[in-house]
Amino acid sequence: MQKRGLIILGAATLALVVLAVVAIATGDHGVSRAAPGERALPALATKLDDIGAVGIKRSALSLTFVRDGDNWLVAEKGNYPAAAGKVRQIVLAMADLLLVEPKTQQAEFYPRLDVEDPASGKSTLVTLKDKSGATLAELIIGKRRFDRLGTGTDGVYVRKPGDSQSWLARGSLEFSDQPSSWLDRRIVDIPEKRIAKATLTQPDGTKLVISRAKPEDKFTVEDAPADAKFKSETTTSEPAMVLESLDLDDVKPAAEMPIPDKDVVTGSFTTFDGLTVNVRLLDKDDMHWVALSAVGSGATEAEAKAIGEKASRWTYAIPSYKATQLKMKLADLLEPAKG
Question: Most buried among 39, 132, 242, 263, by the most CB within 10 A?
């Protein structure tokens, strides 16, 4: 009986070994062949130059970044330039992820680590493809663990799609659900100190013009009543601040969101060195959309050309406070009448 039991036990062990070998040989994704100390994506480091696209998919976000030389474009935004540094950081961080400790293989526990299916949870699926569209690597990125390893390096939970094994890896990846955070947000940046004259025109033709002769002078309001009492120098100069650190909240191709030439708010801003930037503003769908153009002479000719080449293809959604500055009227600069 004892001999028979040993034979049965040996046969069962052999069967398990055979099953394991078959699973590995046939590519069964339920069997993890990784081990602590290995890279999460061992072959990726040698293929960084081959990457042509990076996809990130979360429950609230799905974006594809397409490589354009040293830059990255956002396919879902008409190939608008991405925040290239953020995309590069993702690629490098993926290549550097080092497996430290195996975690759960049970799907019901994946949500605790945020490594469940991205379509129904908080995880992020990152897909790297080569220039032909072939997938180079895929990884589900889960919850971040701040300095979990006690080495001054953050950890993050990860899992390969189709693999039941989840891991704690050494490295750090963060993903924002705000689409604008993935874009090159800066439209233009022309400081108020460069502005010599700003003209704001409302759809009804009402104009507000502020100007000054020298950068150190205070702005004055053209055609203001002689007895006008202004709130402050800062308020009077606000129209000249529209183009200072002007960032986008969203962007669309100009053909998809054209801004008419008439019946919209317009702004014209002229610098002391000869650059003029014109802005048209349209409020639509609770957003503030602008189109820009520029002309320049002398030293500012190249600057105007660069602004025009960048802005001519796009219509930008701008923050509310910038739209408010564009809409300012004389009454907004004056002290309220007593009583």
Answer: 242
Q: Which two tokens stand for residue 78?
A: 């008409």
Buried b (16+ CB within 10 A) or exposed e, 195-231: bbbbbbbbeeeeebbbbbeeeeeebebeebeeeeeee
Residue matched to tokens 């004389």: 330
Distance between CA atoms of residues 246 and 322, nearest Å: 8
| Residue 16 half-sphere exposure toward CB, CA atoms < 13 A | 6
Per-residue three-class SS string for 82-112: ECHHHHHHHHHHHHHCEEEEECCCCHHHHHH
Distance CA(87)–CA(164), nearest Å, equals 28
How far apart are alpha carbons 84 and 66 in whole angstroms?
10
Query: Given its phi and psi angles, is residue 319 left (phi above 0), alpha (psi -120 to 50 degrees) or beta?
Result: beta
Helix-then-strand count for the chain, H and E: 7, 19
Q: Which residues contact 24 (CB under 8 A, 6 or more apart)?
A: 31, 33
Give the whole-angstrom CA distance, residue 304 versus residue 53.
Answer: 32
How far apart CA 317 and CA 190 sit, in angstroms, is: 18
pLDDT tens per residue across span 60-85: 899 999 999 999 999 999 999 999 99
Q: Tell me the average pLDDT across 269-274.
A: 97
